[in-house]
User: Fold this.
Amino acid sequence: MKRILTGLFTAVVVISSMVSAQEPQAGAPANLEKTPWLKGVQISPYPVDISPVIPLKIYAENGEAIPATLTEDVPLTLVADTTIFEEAPPVEYKGQQIPNPRWEENPAISWFFIDWEKNKNYMASVSEPLAANQMVIIPTTPTGKGAITCHIARRMRYDLPEPGRSKGTFANSSGAKDVRVLDITPPLCGLEISVENGGSGACWPVENPPDKYPLPKQADVYLSGALFNANDQDILLQGLELGNNMVVAADQAALQVSANDKLSVKVIGGDNYKLDNSKLKFGLCNGAGGEPAPVGPVNADVIDLSKLKLPEALHLYLDATDVAGNRQVMFIPVIVK
Amino acid sequence: MKKLTGFLMVVAILFSFAVMITAEEPADEAASTTTDVSAAPEAAPIPDNADMTLGMTESKDVMPATFRGGDPDSSLVHCLEDVYYEKQEHSLIYKEDAGELAEGAKFESDPNITWDTKVKDADGNWKTLTSANTNMAADGGKFFAPGEYQIGNSGARQVGGSSGADNEAIGEGTDPTNEAGGEGNTDTALVGEDGKTEADAKTVTAQQSMGVQVHDVTSPDLWVAFQEGAGSVDMAATEQELKSKMMEKIISTLGRPFSTNAEDYEEASYMFVDEGADGERDKEPFDKTARLSVAGALFNDRGAPKFETKTIESKTLDEESMTRQVHVSGGEKSALKGVFVRRNVPFIFAAMAVDNGDHRAKAGEVACRIEKADGTEVEKDGNSYLFRVPNFPRDNYEDQPEYFFVAKGSDKAGNLTTIRTPLYVVNTQAAFEGGRNQ
Assistant:
């Protein structure tokens, strides 16, 4: 009797396991330390119902392949090549027949540019009318590792085996093109200056208009603080060409110091991608424009004016270059009282 | 007996093997690549994309598929406006191990995850309402207006390490800085943070969507205007004129009173029942309130112009369909004492409603009338209403009939806004505007 009961128990256990095995598999619980993005997720990654995934390729507008390297701020019209725009959905997915499939809605389309270095994406949108499968991407952030992605969903319906019944679901189509984005914007560095036992001042450029193309890039330069006679209101110089010859004229603004002052100088700002710190230079120079002709120490945190023979056309200069080679050289007049 | 037991054991073991084999099949199928994968005998190529699942997290506020007559096979998720919902998604590209995507594959980055909410416009096209790059596979939020939405999850992840990604470099971008004399625009300047060019990694995408029907559980905003024909007021020739004025204002103010200054209501008196000010709108259905505002001279027996406003209740009308009703019951104990009209002064009234179901874009006419206590409708005297015998104060005119002003506005979902308030005929003669009765 005991053996019969044992046999029956075994059979019941096995049949139970068979029933549970037929349910959708949720997979092993997520390790949230290694996959923190799965916090709060309890569903299985394996779809239970039919939801076909349709291949998608991204091409340039002319049908050619997208260059592996794009240029920052240069618009690129792209085309998504997928059958999700065709008259009817697929009749089969992963070997499973989809009876009488038909679309129920227009496709919903999203385009993104992903900067994988920051793991951040930027949604693309246009105001001008384009074909449904087209989009203009403007890569505004340089990156060594990026991707253009297109995601499309379209509601569809297919017949169920029971007569008169049909089921709604989504067909999805997505794809990516890995690209790099070349930095064409010079650095946007500025200087913070203070005088021992005296006032302070700062000057810095702001790209304006942002993401301008075609070149050249432009910037507004702001100057603030007592050393620039801008205690109450910043001085704004608009429309300078952002590049290697940013010259502030003496009648616009000037750093006003005394011959015995000790200047503490610090670089502020940076680059929209990566600054090449090995090429960063700042200090005093003779004249403005062209290659700076340094007067006194280069990249010194403190400049003791009393120890220098100061030229008539004394300027403060900043020479910054990013890793892509874009260069910013800015000259600020210095008036020594 | 021993034979029977032995037989059962053998059957059990055979079942166990069968179950193990059956259980492994779906996972293998699901893990199979979806697109553009040519058979490669030596190593599995990395697919372009992967399946994704997406669903609303279970909650009592997720309505059944048949909610308000829904089609159970539509796969639409039924939700209520202004309720917080959580949704979640999953895909092979979110797992710890990329092995299920392709043998030997490795994830080269964390996933990039974006939640999109799209809403259908009048042309049937989907417009993006929000796009949030959360990089999390679960997300929460509210739908602040009824309508048909599409929740989309766009996922991507860098995958490498298999037989190589189909990610060939095709040409190089034009470098416009060359002309400008830029220097050092080399490829080495564009390597990733880790110093690798990642040429062997590719972006694999996944995408899934979910249709959400968000149901209206807010009663419509209802305006009633009363306009007298006495004094210097230029009475509207017809009710339609008054309605046209109201229609313009109720849409432009999205149902809110167009002014809080009593002086702005000299031409006509208004009763506003609406969802309330910004802080009161979009409350969860279970906490919803409404706001009653009365403006003008006809809401007190002295005829003194005023603007008063007060929060009122919004109650569940039907538990199953989750419809709600805002009812204004006028009287001595109510925020609305009643409507006070003058004896022998002709007046007209009109009622108009807007609803959040269409973002208050259109105004609709509302049924309203004056009736006696027994429900008998009081007819117009020509083009307007006119009462020749006062009935207020009630103690002095017990023999005169009681009158009630009633109005009922409803939206497509069945939410109601109703008013039933006493209408008093006051013996004011011409002294009404002086603020005292005769």
